[in-house]
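User: I want to check something. If I give you two sequences, will you return the structure for each one separately, not as a complex?

Assistant: Yes, each is folded on its own. Here is the first sequence with its structure:
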Amino acid sequence: MKPNQTEMRLWAYAQGGLAADERGKMEKALVADPVLRRELTMISAYVDALPAEEPSQAEWDALETRVLAGWRAMQAGPEPEPSPAWRFRPAWGAVMLAVAVAAAFVVWLGGENAPPPQALKLPAEVAFSIGEPTATGLVAPLAVAEKAGDPYIAVHSLSRGYAQGGDEIATGDNQAVKLLFRKRITISLLPRTTLRFHELDGAVAPYLVRGAVVIETQPGDGEPFRLVAEGLKITDIGTRFSVTTDGKGEGTVAVVEGAVRVERPGVATAQVGAGKTGRWSPGRTPTRIERRTADVEPFASVERFFPSTPRDDGDGEEPAAKSARAPKVAPVNPAVGVVPPESQSSAKTSWQRTLESLSAPEVEAINRFYAEVERQMTSGYTVHAIENLENYIGDHRGAESEKARFLLAECHYNLQERSEALVAYQIYLGLYEDGAWRELAKARLAELMRQLGLEGR
């Protein structure tokens, strides 16, 4: 793969080979383009590591082997097969691969990859207008407070101590990470979550690609915290809330304290207060946001946001027909210690309707799964039950994950994790208007609101 003109000029710039006028143009481009600066950092790291004399082909091959080993250790991925077409004085493929890998490997080992000196002088709250040339571009301080497992974290963002557009963090099945953002905001990423940073209204803001995050903010004079999910701009007006999205058009905003503003830019805006849950659903052309309040106790009213047009996947099939045809997988056992749904009401619940759509083999398979979850919940392995339930929710949508969401709330409740339980019950009530365990969830939520001093807010 032959390098493009920009890459060749970056190489020449790093080695002092550009003419004065070309060097001036490159310096202006570096000031305005953070991506270009990152590429230069990688190239410079490689150039600085080159020996004084021209290496032999054997030395080139040894270098390539070492950096590939580091890349595999860091990414846990398969070794790329080098192509003979990459060879270019003495091996352009090896050079370009070594540039990216060697720089990342140096950072991974704790080597130097500090931000430009100007970045250290920036205030904690950065609010440049988009497109304004600055020494470092748009940045926001970022650090890791806690982590479980080994989540993939954009190496350069944490090594330099700030986040900028393009940085991404992702957690796996049994991984979680808590970030300290802008020195006064904690962002907790739950398992199977992807968070990407991008530029929004002249500042760096996180974008929830998939999964669930819990946000806690401390009072301050800086810009309000904003998060983007599914094209909605979510602005914090309070102190603690959570956001979930499946990455396919559905999601929720559950507020524990304070309030958040949910906005479809240029379309509609709504506010979600403490004890409330906002919900959005799939839409092809979301021209407006419809709001209605569910039949829930005043302390936990639920606002929903429905785009006016249903999702269209472009295959010509009506969404309702597709939903009816799709294979169903749903829990079937009542929650531990909970009255079975059929005894709660004479009307059919969403749970019962889901059960009726299952075949006998599906019922048997799901029975086995929930039997194991319930065994974990009653034998001291609730944390393992939480992991299994979160994984299940990540793989299922709508009524298929009703029981999993309720049991997840029960797990947090049993562990006396009151804030987490409160958010989980809010999400359950927001998603299932005729859910099988709705009355118990409302009672639990009322109790938690009293314990946390949030009753009546």
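And separately, the second sequence with its own structure:
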Amino acid sequence: MAQKQAARFDLLLPEEAGFLEGDENEDTCTISQQDIADAVDITSGTKYFDLNLSQFGPYQLDYSKTGRHLLLGGRRGHVACVDWQSKQLMCEINVMESIRDVRWLHTETMFAVAQKKWLFIYDSNGIELHCIRKFNDVLRMQFLPYHFLLATASMTGFLQYLDVSVGKEVAAICTKKGRLDVMCQNPSNAVIHLGHSNGTVTLWSPSQKEPLVKMLCHHGGVRSVAVDKTGTYMVTSGMDKKLKVFDVRTFQNLNSYFLPAGASCLSLSQRGLLAAATGDVVQVYRDVWSSPVRKPYMAHRAQAAACELRFCPFEDVLGIGHGQGFTSILVPGAGEPNFDGLDSNPYRSAKQRQEWEVKALLEKIQPELISLDPTQLGKVDLGTFQQKHQDRVQALGFDPLAKEKFVPRHKKKGRSSAGNVDRRKRQVANIDQRLKFLTVAGNGTKKEVKQQPQLHLLCDACFLVLVKYYTYTHTHCWCKQRTLTRDKVF
């Protein structure tokens, strides 16, 4: 029902996605960023810029959930928080040791930095809030916003989950796969995807010590993994210089592309555009899972080899972290033009952010609910009749639906001898099966036959209507009075 209402309301959305269209016989991948910036409006043109930070590169980057704030982390210890649309610097510090990854937490007031030895938490003013020594040698991080979980992958092969709402370690899983330097999350079900040096991609949940799924994707090591926002498609790149697209629902390979030098990092936008970096060349592809792609949608050459790609939410912007600093380029049609003001509002005030944080904490999803199929949480657990019946029998100590044991009525004049009683018991035994099936002599097979014709009789004593089958000689009522003969059929 919610999906139908959302699809109905899509007709009322005010904004439409952008696109890049070249002239006749013009390839869009040959259009430069400067030409695009000159053709768009002034506000959009300012979103294309370069930050020359060659002293502390290469840089890791992350955009906030609202897409308004940018977090940069240089390999040599430089950390900066920027409101990149207004170009306002929030904080800038140097931690004086190497940085492997940076990640925003649930709001733009806190972020996590994976430093040389331990994991650190800072606020937007650059003040150190926590030093978490349980999380050491962290290489990659992913934040699960609806679970308030920070997932980290370490150099020693451990996948750890930190609940940032209470500061407690939820799970620590030894993957037994060695160094974990390839990591991404599935936005639809919060499952973590890890790439390994043996060409496999494993899917993990904090409630399981073993991988949910293990996929062999490449003949060489996996270099990068990306999953679209619907959780339907996964894109991987490996040392075998191949770019592969998988359907996560069936775990089948849809398309495979060969890149001359392979892709070192990947990123998927909200509208399905794929960015792949090969050295200092960044190429953007469109519709990689619907049909085979023959040429890129856009291309850009950075100042140095790219080490991180990230699409900005709700903006047609791609952030590139490289050895010379940071570059923001324009990619028309990448971002979702309409946003949910109750979930991710880029224009919210400080008061609205505080109210949203309280509501998000109240609606926090427990880690035990992370699974491959999130739709199971909305279904009713309908136990089978057999299971309910077994539970009832176990609780009562007897079967309330079981038929009472047949006790033949005592007859006089020697008709209740042991032989007669045993014969009457055998006649009543398995009466239901004998009415439905007829055993064929010789081969022992059973074939279904029609039900025996019924005869309705009336008891003279209690006037109770009885049902009699022709296979019986006579019928008795509960009052021990014999019913009328066949001429009283009605």
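Because they were folded independently, the notes below concern the second chain alone. Residues 307 and 322 are 5 Å apart (CA to CA). Residues 438-444, 448-452, 469-473, 485-490 have pLDDT under 50 and may be disordered.
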